[in-house]
Protein 1
Amino acid sequence: MFDRSTGLAVALVAALGMAMTEAQAAEIHTGGESGAYQSTFCPMLKSRIDGVGRTFDCKTSLGSSENLRRIARDPEDFGYAQLDVFALESGRFGGRNTFRSVRTDDARECVFAVTANRNLTNYGQIAVNSDVLKFILPPRSSGSASTFEFLSSIDPTGLGRARRVSHASDTDEAIRRTIRDGQAVTFFVQFPDPSNKRFQMIRRLGGHLVPVVDGVILDQEVNGTPVYFAQETQITQHRWMRAGKHVVTACTPLVLFTGNPNRITAPDVRLAQRRLISSLRALRSGDLVPQDSVFEQLYRRTRSASTRAREHFLRVSRNARLRARP
């Protein structure tokens, strides 16, 4: 009986068979040692492509931005990034032709805005008041800070007017400082795991989540792929006789990318890289996520927001912008 995994292995052997055996191990650039890129996604990718002519090692990094810089230098490597960060920063490392997006359909990370100000209930209100609000963000090197930069760049008359922006030592500290301030806002990006203690902390400290849904945000694309999707995400766990809490917000795909094969000088390695890219693209959505893992469960639980919910949040955000006009 023909097994799909066996078929992939055969295809990858053919793809990489011409690569020089003496070549050094290529690397898959991830993120922090305890992060999901390194601990969950990379091992699955490595298990699919190891032992078929070349060895790939999972390599920790500071995250999406550093991964782009590394692959700009070594086009045979692979890396993970948030798609919004990929869209923002690929141009800084030689342009989008420097890279090749391999997959964007295995998982999504979601953008969460937190504040203690109960008068802020939608993204449009944050955008039109950004010139007077204080923003306390995760570290400058974080994907969350890059997401805020990307949102600011696509919304110059809204979030792009933010001037009072500072950075905390980590995401949890940014949340604590924001809620203590009472009027500040923070943005962070993560997988919407209801078991994550961060959501419990927000509720315990008196903060609340503001839906990050707006027409400017949902209109963004990279090579025809939407940068953000309006998603219904679960943020608290179900309890007996009580449903878990959900929030609708913008989520950005996790992108697996590599260098443009045209930048590889050796013809046999260049051809092998192209075949490897094609083989990985042929996998089904979710094939590079461990079955029965928390991320596979999140993939199933997090779903596209209904048209009604999506239009509701687009409307309230648009109305907030219209009311702020002179």
Note: The longest strand covers residues 246-259.
Protein 2
Amino acid sequence: GGLANELAPNAPLPREKRAVSKPTTITVRYTNFPEQAKVAFDAAVGIWADLFPSNVPMTIDATWSNPGAGVLGSARPGNYHSGFTNAPDKDLYYPSALANAIAGKDLDPSSAEIVARFSSGTVWYFGTDGQPSFGKYDLVTVVLHELCHGLGFLSSDTYDPYSGVGTLDRPTAYDAFARTVDDKRLSDLPTPSVELGRALTNTLYWGGPLGIAANNGIKPKIYSPTRYDDGSSVSHLDESTFPSGDKNSLMSPQLDAGEVIHDVGPIAAAMLEDLRTKPPAGAVTALPSPPR
């Protein structure tokens, strides 16, 4: 998931409010990282170790490189797994860290659970006190956001703007919780299809009960602008609903220089918990299109 232009300050989440009594063991293998950047990265990892319960140690491969203009950082799962022991839904794909946590064992010992890259060309603030000087991006905030994607906060969708066709070749658990306004699950829509493409560029909500409860009983709105935003659409909370300053703004798609968020927010934390459960059934869809 890409970060671009807008987020906001929040205080760190107090330890007594965090969900895990025993922190998850997370090892980071750094490539080309400056020592100062490692300190900020480790601070974000520590927050997730307290929030993401798993009895299986996790490895993150983190590279300091130049990914191109306008990209602060990115993170992806090392692998995806389906049909494993205790899988809530055998037909869906679960990112490595989440699948391991659910299965209680390392399903792919040869691979890192998360693969991350961060921009060597960005003017970063490496401190952990949330007080960046003017014009600098807070690295702890960006790492916290990107690791959330690597832990499971992401769709596997693709969209062709010329044909309007959307594709979900390997629907993730996240895709099964993402709902259209008429309560169809993204993962149930025919793929590839224009119907799925329309869903990706229209209003989407989160259908998981824990995420809804964390939003005071209202389905959290997902970022799905009518003009598909490659790298941001679907895999974020809605920017206008959760703008800068909102306690749930970490997982909206935009970040400004100088903005600080060291709190995952109750909705994103609850959504990751939803992903460990079987997605509720969605509204019935039409018969699938003929295979292509």
Note: Confidence is low (pLDDT under 50) at residues 1-20.
Protein 3
Amino acid sequence: MRIRTIKPEQPKDEELAALPIHARYLFAFLPTHADREGRLEDRPRVLKLDIFPWDDDVDVDDLLKRLSVHFIIRYEVDGKKLIQIKQFSKHQRPNIREPGSTLPAPPDDD
């Protein structure tokens, strides 16, 4: 896990506020799973276990679909499913010692 921040204005974002509370919670924790460029593997079951370990009724794949409208890009490169958090570098300041991403960037057409 990495240390990430949540800006105080995040809960006031109208597009985010329109989503269910579980989607907002997931979005708040996604950066803790992302590398320094805001990329992570698109593995809903793993994210569910890490972020919602006590909530059996949470469908993380569905929540990621909802977030993909404005907040994340879901994509695939060489058969590997990935997520890019949009505007990650605008909202996060990774430690300079954190290694660079080993995950490919999303294709330009996304």
Note: The CA atoms of residues 20 and 52 lie 14 Å apart.
